[in-house]
C-alpha cells in the first residue's frame, strides 16, 4: 500500500552526531517508535497523521550510533491497535527491545499472552486529543485490570491542562503508571507554579507513578535547538526535567522519542539530545538510575 506523508512532515535526522556524553553501560532508550514501513505494516485507517517510514533497521542503527544497549518501543497512534510493526521490531531485536502496546477491550487472553512472549510489558492510554478519538474510561479500566496480572504497567500521555480532570481516573489504575514527557508542561509557566506543582504532587502522592523526562524538543519554546553542535539545547525545559529527576530519582526514565512524530519546527540531532541528559541528571548516580537501573526494573525485571 502507498501512503502519502502528512503535509509539512519532518523526517528524522539523517546523520545524528556521536554524543559527547558517554552513556553508562547498559543504557536504555525507553521511549521510541517504529513507523511501518507502510508497505509491510500499513498505517491504521483511524490515524490522525501519516508519518515517514521509520523501521526497525533504522532504529537499531540509531541505538548503536548513540551508544544505547536497549530500546523500549512504544506503539504510536498512527498504527492504532495494530501492534505488528512494533512486535516485529521486538522479535528481531535479539532481546534488546521491549514494547508498549495499544489494545482494545476485544483483545483475547491468548493475544495478550502472545504480546507478552514477544516482549510487550505495558499498554499505552493516550489522551492527547489531536492524536486519538475518545475511549470510554470503563474500557480502559477493564484493560488495565486484565494486564495487571501479567506484571505490565500503563503508559499515559496527556497535556498538563487536562491533569485535574484525569486525576481520579489515573489514581484508580491498579498498575505502575508511566507518564510520557512529564505530562507536557507549559514551560512558559514557572517550574514552581500551580500547574507543575500539581504534576509534582501527582507523583509525590502516588508512589506507583513514574515519569519520562523526555521530549525537550517538543516542550521547548525558546530553544536553542539541538542542531549544529549545540551543547546547551532547550534551556527552558531543563528546570522542569531536573526537578523531576532530583525529586523522584527512582521513578524516572529517558528516551529519544525517535523518529519524533509531529514536530513542526525542526528535527533535532539525536546525538545532541543525548548531550541534554547531563543537564537534567547531573551526577553519575542519577544518570545510572535514569538510564539503566529504572528502565531495567520496569522492562527487564528478571535481570535485576
Ligand atoms: O511520540 C510521542 O511520544 C509523541 C507524539 C506522538 C505520539 O505519541 C503517537 O502518535 O502515539 C506527539 O506528541 O505527537
From TrEMBL:
Enzyme Commission number(s): 3.1.1.57
Matches recorded under InterPro entries: Amidohydro-rel, Aro_Compnd_Degr_Hydrolases, GLI/LigI, Metal_Hydrolase
Catalytic activity: 2-oxo-2H-pyran-4,6-dicarboxylate + H2O = (1E)-4-oxobut-1-ene-1,2,4-tricarboxylate + H(+)
Pfam families: Amidohydro_2
GO terms for MF: 2-pyrone-4,6-dicarboxylate lactonase activity
Top-level taxon: Bacteria
GO BP terms, alphabetized: 3,4-dihydroxybenzoate catabolic process
Residues in Amidohydrolase-related domain copies: 28-299
Keyword entries, A-Z: Aromatic hydrocarbons catabolism, Hydrolase
Similarity section: Belongs to the metallo-dependent hydrolases superfamily. PDC hydrolase family.
This protein's name: 2-pyrone-4,6-dicarboxylate lactonase
